[in-house]
Amino acid sequence: MTLKKFFAGILASMIIFVSPPTFAQYEDDGETITEVPTEIYMWVQSTPRANYWFNHKDCGYRVKDDNTLDLYTLRVPTVLIYDNVQIEDVIQKRKWRKLSLIGYDRLAGRADFLEFDLRNMTVQVVERVDLDDTWAHLDKDTSGEPVKLTDIPVKDVRYKFYRTILEWARAHNDLIIARSRGHLSEEDGNLLITEVPINKIFIPPAEVQQKPEDALPTPDE
């Protein structure tokens, strides 16, 4: 079966509109709890310092200049929700670096906009944005560099996070293509399902079950 036949009808009928979500917050024994809209975001894991989510409604392939999809470049918005200790840590680091603290009294987490290169098997945080509790942007960083997926240790919290995203993308590739803003090229539309890049890449095995305290933080956690 080819992609063109598989997606016929889906591409013509699907219209996607995703409203910018807002955080809902409440207090639980002095700890600020931030809720993320689960109709848009999928929870993957929790570490001692953050909860990891990715936007399953806005995953999409890069659109080329001719408006066709680049099936080798997958873009995925993600969100990390911090606990109070991580919030204070971020604020203290900004103080040390003499960076602006405007709005950081309401810091809730950050958004990482990921780009997976399925040809070279890398992932890059193309933009990292600090978020307050209303989803407003506080500051951003675009200095992220591509990282080889095979170089990420099993106990690094990114290992499970990225692996889960790629597994979901493989299982829902039809949905991702339908939601992407471009269209399939003639060549890609005639690809066999088994030849689609997301179906050809090697996704590493699940990590050995580990206790939360054993998880290694990401470099800036």
Low-confidence stretches: 5-33, 208-217
The SSE order reads HHEEEEEEHEEEEHHHH
- Report the mean per-residue pLDDT as an integer: 83
Number of strands: 10
Number of helical segments with 4 or more residues: 7
Q: What kind of sheet is the major sheet?
A: 8 strands, antiparallel
Rg to the nearest angstrom?
A: 19 Å
The secondary-structure class comes to alpha+beta
Distance between the termini: 45 Å
What multimeric state do the chains show?
single chain
Structural shape: elongated
What percentage of residues falls in helices of 4 or more residues?
10-25%
Beta-strand proportion = 25-35%
Structure characterization notes:
The chain is of the alpha+beta class. It is 24% helix and 31% strand. It has helices at 3-7, 10-13, 84-96, 157-171, 173-179, 186-189, 197-200, and strands spanning 24-28, 31-35, 41-46, 50-55, 60-63, 69-82, 107-117, 122-132, 137-141, 147-148. Strands 3, 4, 5, 6, 7, 8, 9 and 10 form an 8-stranded antiparallel sheet that branches. A two-stranded antiparallel ribbon has the order 1-2. The N and C termini lie far apart (45 Å). Mean pLDDT is 83; it is low at 5-33 and 208-217.
